[in-house]
Design a protein that fits this description.
Helix content: 25-40%
Bound molecules: iron/sulfur cluster
Largest sheet: 4 strands, antiparallel
Number of helices: 5
Structural class: alpha+beta
Number of strands: 4
Strand content: 5-15%
Order of helices and strands: HEHHEHEHE
Shape: globular
Strand order of the largest sheet: 1-2-4-3
Amino acid sequence: MADQTLLQKLFISKGFSDYCWIDPREIVTAQWVRMKYMFGCDFYGSASCPTDIPSLDDCRVFFDEYRLGTLFHLSQSFNDPEELRIWSRDAKRALLELERSVCLSGYHKTFLLFMDSCNLCRECAGSRAACRNKKLARPCPEGMGVDLFATVSKYGYTLDCPENNERSLDRYAILLIE
Ligand code: SF4
């Protein structure tokens, strides 16, 4: 049984206060998400994105191996793409620190899904084999076939298409815990 009080303290200490507990078996996966990723996402083919991550069936098996996770809501307003890039990179670094802290607290299965495509490097190496940060790069939910619209709505959150607002965004990261 997870010590959710301890985990909550870790989340808050790392600056993540907008979150909810989830049952990873409730994460919705769908083939249409993978198709949209293949035909419509600029990051398709990056080192932590399809085609270098597991099949949709394997992603489903992976999520079903967990009983507890956390959905983190991150929102940000920005004036230009560079500001957004830096915010996204720094938030990922903080999430990776949190993943490490949770793992060191005894939750050895802990695994993070970034809230968007990995941008730890200014230019992605383009394949998992060539990745410059193999220990730190993580996939994002959409890359793993997660229907975020359906998944976040189960937990009372909403998601808008980025094209509908060019100056602010809502993103969701997932921490699979045990
Ligand atoms: S760590 Fe760098 S090379 Fe690896 S997936 Fe992320 S951006 Fe690409």
